[in-house]
C-alpha cells in the first residue's frame, strides 16, 4: 500500500507534488485539439457542398417544371380559344395568363401562324436568374401539335 492508501502490485508511479493523478488526467483530457476541430470543419464543409449542389439542381428542376406547367396550360387555353374563335391568340393574357402570374425565371412568348392556324409557345430562361445555368434547358418550346423542344426523348428537360 502506498501513502495514499491505494494498493499497487509491482507498479510504481511517479508522484506529482502538486496534483493528484486524477487531477492531472482530468486536466489533460479537457477540450479538443486543433487537428480534431479542423477534421470536423472539413467534414462539415464537404457535406455542405454536396447538399448545396443537390439543392441547386432541385431548384432548377422545380423552376423548369413550373414553366412547363404554365406552357401546357397556355397550350390548353389556346386550343379552347381556337374552338371558340377559329384562330389562336398571340398573347398569354388573352387566354387568362396575366404577366404577374407567370414564373419570373422565364420570359414567355407565343408565335402565331394563320394558315393553317398554328402556334408555338416559347419559354426562355431570364439571363439574370439562376435558371440561366440550367444547361441545355434554357429555351423550351411546345407547339400546337404537342411537339416539345428540346425533345423529351433526348433531353431531360421535359421529364
Structure in a nutshell:
With 159 residues, the protein is an alpha+beta fold. The chain has one domain (31-158). It has helices at 21-28, 34-85; strands at 106-113, 118-125, 139-143, 148-149.
Task: Please supply descriptive tags for the structure shown above.
transmembrane helix; single chain; transmembrane; 14% strand; rod-shaped; 159 residues; alpha+beta; methylation
Strand coverage percent? 5-15%
Assembly type of the shown chains? single chain
DSSP E strands, number: 4
Distance linking N and C termini: 80 Å
Pfam families: ComP_DUS, N_methyl
GO biological process, one term: protein secretion by the type II secretion system
Protein name: Type IV pilin protein
Keywords: Membrane, Methylation, Transmembrane, Transmembrane helix
Folded structure, characterized:
The protein has 159 residues and is α+β, with helices and mostly antiparallel strands. It contains 2 helices and 4 strands. Strands 1-2-3-4 form a 4-stranded antiparallel beta sheet, with helices on one face. The longest helix is centred in the middle third of the chain and has 52 residues, at 34-85. It is rod-shaped and about 105 Å long.
Topology of this protein?
Elements: H1 21-28, H2 34-85, E1 106-113, E2 118-125, E3 139-143, E4 148-149
Antiparallel strand pairs: 1-2, 2-3, 3-4
Amino acid at each position: 500500500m502506498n501513502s495514499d492508501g491505494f494498493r499497487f502490485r509491482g507498479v510504481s508511479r511517479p508522484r506529482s507534488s502538486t496534483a493528484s493523478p486524477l487531477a492531472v488526467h482530468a486536466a489533460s483530457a479537457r477540450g479538443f485539439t486543433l487537428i480534431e476541430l479542423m477534421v470536423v470543419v472539413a467534414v462539415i464543409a464537404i457535406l455542405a457542398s454536396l447538399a448545396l449542389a443537390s439543392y441547386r439542381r432541385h431548384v432548377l428542376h422545380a423552376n423548369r417544371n413550373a414553366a412547363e406547367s404554365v406552357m401546357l396550360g397556355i397550350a390548353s387555353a389556346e386550343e379552347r380559344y381556337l374552338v371558340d374563335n377559329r384562330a389562336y391568340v398571340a398573347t398569354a393574357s388573352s387566354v387568362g395568363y396575366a404577366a404577374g402570374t407567370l414564373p419570373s425565371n422565364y420570359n414567355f412568348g407565343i408565335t402565331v401562324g394563320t394558315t393553317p392556324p398554328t402556334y408555338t409557345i416559347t419559354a426562355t430562361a431570364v439571363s439574370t436568374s439562376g435558371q440561366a445555368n440550367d444547361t441545355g434547358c434554357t429555351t423550351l418550346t411546345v407547339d400546337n401539335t404537342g411537339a416539345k423542344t428540346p425533345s423529351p426523348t433526348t433531353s431531360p428537360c421535359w421529364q
